[in-house]
Amino acid sequence: MEMKLRFLGAAQNVTGSRTLLEVNGASILIDCGLYQERQFRDRNWEPFTVDPSTIDAVLLTHAHLDHCGLLPKLVREGFRGKIHCTTATAKISTIVLLDAAKIQVEDAEYKKKRHKREKRKSKYPEEPLYTIEDAEECLPLFAPVHYDEPVTVSKGVEVSFHDAGHILGASMIKLSVQNGDEKRLFLFSGDIGRWDKPILRDPTVFDEADYVQIESTYGDRVHENDEDTKELMSKVINATNNANGNIIIPSFSVERSQEILYCLNELMIEKRIPKLMVFLDSPMAIKVTKVFKDHPEMFDSEMADYVNNNQSPFDLPNLMVTRTANESKAINHIGGTVIVIAGSGMCTGGRVKHHLVNNIARPESAVLFVGYQANGTLGRSIVDGAKEVRILGQKHRVKADIVRVHGFSGHADRDELYRWLSNIKKPPRKVFVVHGEENSARQFGDFIREKTGWDVCVPKYMDEVALD
């Protein structure tokens, strides 16, 4: 049996997830994500390493942009197979890809005008990476399945998708290869969620595998507990309210925005913060929240109880949803303190940039970072302590209170990753550690070796590994 893994993305970095499995004469791509780190964005424009028309199927773990965001380019360049994923992932991916395409087009037009005005050229083409029409071409290729439902994707290759507990519809992929009397079992973790978190069920665990690919976003650290998170949130919100500033929360539209609403609702009910106006300033997050309401079968027991009692933690009495650009701009004219949840989570695009322009130089305001900030993103520059940042072509002093809240992470930390991995009873033939910055991936690889003695590999970008 000839098998090979090719690591085409998220290898010693966090975004651009792409792994190619070549087996039984078939080529199967696991995820097709967009690079979001500044130093890796050139890779989005490069031709695919393999001819997209030769790829037989895509297996999509979930709908975050760093896992699905290059699908329109893949399809435009020749891919015609099926994109296998869960129903919720297909629905959310549709929202995410159409929104990403719209932003690509708008950003290209904005940069073209700005560079013409400044009489300079960009290192990136002044055209969109892909268009709305390109994104729409992807949609008929989605082939949704239910959790645990086996699907044959090529001769002798069967896959099933299992709840990852990361975002709605997110999956771990179990892939079985049969060739005569030989059989191999692969596990692709995707992004592993966390145990005992609100809204979603706990991650699925497995007791056997020949080969495991596991993420390592937080493979070098342990998260704070939930009560610490709520205490920090309430402390920052109350202090900012007393100073008459605004609270800006850059947030991923999928899962994180909904979890923030859940937390704010609890804090207001518990009277730990005042009932401030809360703006969900993300058309995409508004649409994704509707998908949540359409899939109660994916909720954990606590969330299901809310739904069964005709309640929703997403419907705060003082919640305002802003669908249009004019509604978003109007927020800046409101007196007093408001809480603004806006995309994107790493400040790489979207409406949050405009809110940062209006608040980052105000010492009375606060910016709460509630998700991972990849190296090379605007968000990472801010949390790393930059005194001045460039936003929408202009430099701004950073004077607002910058607060990082790790407890909202949708990614398992080091101990939770190991908890998931340690359910495998027999040593796998090899474990591949991906989707983590170099230090995090290497530290977690060492941690696994020390704990288990297993054969662990931390692949680099474009590495190829032959399997037996």
Give an overview in words.
Helix content is 31%, strand content 23%. With 468 residues, the chain is of the alpha/beta class. The chain folds into two domains: 3-221 and 410-467, Ribonuclease Z/Hydroxyacylglutathione hydrolase-like (Metallo-beta-lactamase, Chain A, 4-Layer Sandwich), CATH 3.60.15; 226-408, Rossmann fold (3-Layer(aba) Sandwich), CATH 3.40.50.10890. The strands form four sheets. Strands 6-5-4-3-2-1-22 form a seven-stranded mixed sheet. It has a seven-stranded mixed sheet with strand order 7-8-9-10-11-20-21, covered by helices on one side. Strands 14-13-15-12-16-19 form a six-stranded parallel sheet. A hairpin with a 2-residue loop joins strand 17 and strand 18. The longest helix has 32 residues, at 87-118.
Structural class based on helices, strands and sheet pairing = alpha/beta
Average pLDDT taken over every residue: 92
Q: What name goes with the CATH superfamily of the largest domain?
A: Ribonuclease Z/Hydroxyacylglutathione hydrolase-like
Please give the radius of gyration in angstroms: 22 Å
Q: Main beta sheet: strand number and arrangement?
A: 7 strands, mixed
Give the amount of beta strand, in percent: 15-25%
E-strand count: 22
**Given this structure, which CATH class of the largest domain is correct?**
Alpha Beta
Shape verdict: globular
CATH topology of the largest domain: Metallo-beta-lactamase, Chain A
Q: Low-confidence segments, ≥5 residues, pLDDT <50?
A: none
Number of helices: 14
Quaternary structure state of the chains depicted = single chain
- The assigned CATH architecture of the largest domain is 4-Layer Sandwich
Distance between the termini: 7 Å
How are the strands of the biggest sheet laid out side by side?
6-5-4-3-2-1-22
Percent helix among the residues?
Answer: 25-40%
> How many structural domains can be distinguished in the coordinates?
2
